[in-house]
Amino acid sequence: MVAEASDGHAAVTLTRQFKPNVLLLDLAMPGLPGLEVLRELSNDDLTVSTILLTAAIQTFEVTRALQLGARGVVLKESPPELLLRSIRSVCEGEYWVGSNVLAQFGQLQSRETSVLTAREVEVISAIKGGNSNKEIATKLAISEETVKRHLSNIYAKLGVSSRLELALLAVDRGLPGGRTKPVKAS
Q1: What is the CA radius of gyration of the chain?
Q2: Alpha helices (H) along 19-162
Q3: In what helix (H) or strand (E) does residue 165 lie, and over which residues does it extend?
Q4: Which one, of 58, 49, 10, lies nearest residue 30 by Cα?
Q5: How far is 64 from 72, CA to CA, in rounded Å?
Q6: d(C-alpha 152, C-alpha 160), whole Å
């Protein structure tokens, strides 16, 4: 641990000063709330992996936190080993949203499921890793238009409407993870 902040303003200052690999950020910080800290830091060229810690969170706050650059959301009531797993995951470039947080995304869990093709699984894996369409195209040696077509098919099959929902669903369902054969999402 390199620093500890007592409020949101100090969190911004200390993050800029120390440039940590991981930032554990409380949603309800005094002075400047966690989402505002994320917004402030999103203007900087930092490579910090932020995990938002919270006692409770609304669905829109999870979405907003991830849009502002958070890599994970963990409830404070979670066991310490879960927090450690989340830290390891975001350090490896993954997103981490605890299943107790994902339970709030009920609409994602009740969708019809479909069989995904091997290429769709590769695209989901790349999305889960935070890659842009251009990066996915390069990694998979396909065009950006083909990536977009795959994403449209994935969205339709899984009943999601954005990369964020797809990443959340992928984390919740354990999709994918290096599988190269079709996977049935459940």
Answers
A1: 17
A2: 34-42, 59-67, 80-91, 99-102, 106-109, 118-128, 133-140, 144-158
A3: helix 163-173
A4: 10
A5: 12
A6: 10
Q: CB neighbours of 121 closer than 8 A, spacing ≥ 6?
A: 175, 176, 179, 180, 182, 183
Q: Which residue has the tokens 């994935």?
A: 154
**Rounded to 5 degrees, what are φ and ψ at 36?**
-70, -35
Tokens of 8: 């949101």
Q: Is the pLDDT of residue 181 over 50?
A: no
Q: What is the pLDDT of residues 123-132, one digit of tens each?
A: 988 888 778 8
Q: Is the pLDDT of residue 101 over 70?
A: no
Q: Is 97 helix (H, G, I), strand (E, B) or coil?
A: strand
Which residue matches tokens 């995304």? Answer: 105
